[in-house]
Amino acid sequence: MKKWLRVRDETCRFPGCSHPAVKSDVDHTDDWAGGGRTDSDNLAHLCEPHHRLKHLSQWRVTQEPGGILLWTSPGKRSYRTDPATPMGPPRPQPPVVEPKTRKRPADDTYLVPRHRPTRQPTPPAPDNPPF
Ligand SMILES: [Zn+2]
Known about the structure:
Layout (H helix, E strand, L loop, with lengths): L1 H8 L15 E4 L14 E4 L1 H9 L3 E5 L3 E5 L5 E4 L50
Antiparallel strand pairs: 1-2, 3-4, 4-5
Bound molecules: zinc ion (ZN).
Zinc ion binds next to loops.
């Protein structure tokens, strides 16, 4: 997701900033501490000074679908920043599948036949056959 966000954003997403995304922080638009999700539609790159400004000033930001950020300055002016590369959501990561292993049972029961033979042993032939 980090790489995907870097391609989407290319730069810091603060209005007018061109600091490269690769040298920026990934910020939770809705603060993680306040329950914001770690998801592509709640993450955006901010350079360190703008990341600090977002958290320590009256600047406010919301994120629209497609990674569009709507900023409101302390003076109540609105700014919109669009992603450099509009993209659909990243593909979900496939679950990690462990290699198949043959597990033995914890005890020796696997050595005992699961079903007993149904045939009775053949009785011995009589000593004096009838022929
Ligand atoms: Zn910036």
